[in-house]
């Protein structure tokens, strides 16, 4: 057994964060990577550690995704299912009890990935069935792509006839949708529009492969392919405009695609969150109520009594002049680092402090990211010369000094930049297990921890920090409400405007960002819930006298990005079993 320890920059922390056991396994590989029978003589046994299994799993999964590329095709789902089931069989051979704690954590996470992939394939199949009437030709296009992948001899004349028929069938389908577009929900139209455009890409790739070198292929195929491509393009436009009710130029309307309670519950299980959606809404409401009371205290100190929204409006007026935001961010970053280091709260490598950079966000991107985004590059959302007068004022109000003071350390140090710096250097094999509950939870945890330690200097600073904390509570409520079918996107926008105090354009951008498909359904919940998990773990280990504060924070960063219940299992040495199921109740209801 090989016990691996993390590097110890100050020679003060030496926790066995990822000791890995060497296992004796059969040479049999999952079918996705298995050698031919002619290559195998007699079984032998050799040592494998869990990190090797993770690397092979990632390689197999990536290969299937790249080779079986047609989204929605039966062949793709069947091949990925076979790969995941093979991996479940492979993992079942591991002597779980022989692993040390780090190995057990990795085994559980890897097994969870296989289970999650299978569940995701089931959900994908269900959602394709829901829009089957809108995209009935997926297998016809997939068959052409699959034949090329298998290097089957192309029958250009036959394929030309198939495409000519496809073009006619799509034209008929388009007329039917134009006559009765209300047969399907808008979300199905949005999903189908994306699917049709993806299938057009698959068909074009197939066509370009043959056209470039086979004269007979081009002779037969040019006109039928163009007819099919044009028909699919026209049909996608009808689905988008008539079913999803979006025009080509429409970048304002938010449709979204709610997944429903059953899928939410499965996603929570995969994220190791042992609460129902309804319980999470209660947690968010309780945390929001705490924020509201603290807002009233700050408002009184500012002279506005209990009317904290007036205090919030005053804070929004305190912004720097155009062109001065980069200097503000630089100064706020330095202030946060000084605060952290003077209290010995965590290790900040010198290279991390000098290795971030800044970009200004375009007006187009600010439509979905009205505030900073961070990491090694912090993208600054602030007025640019192409904005209207009203947009400029709104951006300055939404990125005022006190809001910015509460977000710079979220995006840089100790937040996302330090996270990315550390996870690229420590426990890198766990990148496959990354979760926003760890990523966003860590950054928001520090907002709450700095509040506890007196980081806000003034009532205005407190309002700035509380605004974001309220916002993260609201994210849980509106995102779960949407996916449960209880809130429309417009109602979500109204919540952010009326209950949190957002500018309407910024609220629209936040909701658009949440539901445009760029983020997984639980992403917006992960900020507050991940922070609460880390607060509970900090209370258990630091306040419980088992670790110093710096040891705790360094251990979280160097153990890798993974569900926080698994961080707890690693750092607190929680007994683990092969049939592990999430059970940690980190918040008392």
Approximate shape: globular
Sheet with most strands: strand arrangement: 1-2
How many runs of DSSP E, i.e. beta strands?
Answer: 4
- Structural class by secondary-structure content: mainly alpha
Q: Helical percent range? A: 55-70%
Report the portion of residues in β strands: under 5%
Mean pLDDT: 88
Task: Describe this protein's structure.
This protein has 23 helices and four strands. It has 589 residues and is mainly α. It folds into three domains: 23-130, no CATH class; 138-243; 263-571, no CATH class. The strands form two sheets. It has a two-stranded antiparallel ribbon with strand order 1-2. Residues 1-31 and 33-47 have low confidence and may be disordered.
What are the main properties of this structure?
single chain, 589 residues, mainly alpha, 3 domains, two-stranded antiparallel sheet, two-stranded parallel sheet, 4 strands, 3% strand, globular, disordered N terminus
Topology:
Layout: E1 23-26, E2 45-48, H1 50-67, H2 74-92, H3 101-130, H4 138-149, H5 156-179, H6 186-211, H7 215-243, H8 261-270, H9 277-301, H10 308-316, H11 325-342, H12 350-354, E3 357-360, E4 377-380, H13 389-398, H14 401-405, H15 408-411, H16 416-423, H17 436-452, H18 459-483, H19 489-500, H20 504-515, H21 523-541, H22 549-559, H23 564-571
Parallel strand pairs: 3-4
Antiparallel strand pairs: 1-2
Helix pairs in contact: 1-2, 1-3, 2-3, 3-8, 4-6, 5-7, 6-7, 9-10, 9-18, 10-18, 17-21, 18-19, 18-21, 19-20, 21-23
